[in-house]
Amino acid sequence: MQAVGVRALQDTEVGCLAEVYLGRQEEKSEQTKAKLLAAAHDLLVEEGYHRTSTAAVCRRAGIARGTMLHHYPNKDALVIAAMEDNMTRQATAFMKTIRFDKGTTIKEIIYDVFDVMCGRSFIAGIEIAIASRTEPALGKMYGVAMDRFEEQIAWIVKMTFPKWQVDYDKLRCVTGLVMRSLVGLAMDVVILNRSREDAQVYLDMLLHWIQLDNAEMGKGRGCK
Fold this sequence. Notes:
- The protein contains nine helices and no strands.
- By secondary structure, it is an all-alpha fold.
- It has a single domain, classed as Tetracycline Repressor, domain 2, CATH 1.10.357.10.
- α4 (about 75-95) runs antiparallel to α6 (about 120-130), α5 (about 105-115) packs antiparallel against α9 (about 195-215) and α7 packs across α8 (about 170-190).
- The longest helix is centred in the N-terminal third of the chain and has 46 residues, at about 1-45.
- The radius of gyration is 23 Å and the shape is globular.
- It starts with a helix and ends in an 8-residue tail after the last helix.
- The model has no long low-confidence stretch (mean pLDDT about 80).
């Protein structure tokens, strides 16, 4: 009986040690991926898609290429993961700025999203979008990633403005149109070096249209 008890105790100790070991390995794995994603994102911004290689990413991250391949099988998987990771962190940070109790305005959301699109992360996305034209596999992954990001933004808008929940299909449609408009304006600023003041005129027109459409929300006029 005593031997059985000792064996059970030993098994428990081994199990606990295994859990600790696996926990540390998982933590180490997440740290490795974070370094790779940060390095890939920075290189996309600084060098562009075609000059960003897995070897360069590994050098900057200080990670062996074999380790990188364990997490990301190829360059496309790595750069898409880097873009998605950045967009997810932006959406999370954006959520923290919304005042659900005091009332965040449509204007504030539009301006906040536009500010994000005029930053470094948007440049990385542009590089991937342009490369997708001649890289079909990359294009498919990019499309899925952008759909997920747009869904995140639509959910944020839905939670911020409860009355828009009556027609979620229309909300998705409006969100998609607004996001595509903001992408175009951001490209003017980021690529063509046009001023934010130039974009302001179009942002105001976009806001005016949204406010008009908002007045129609709930009347069953879905976006077809």
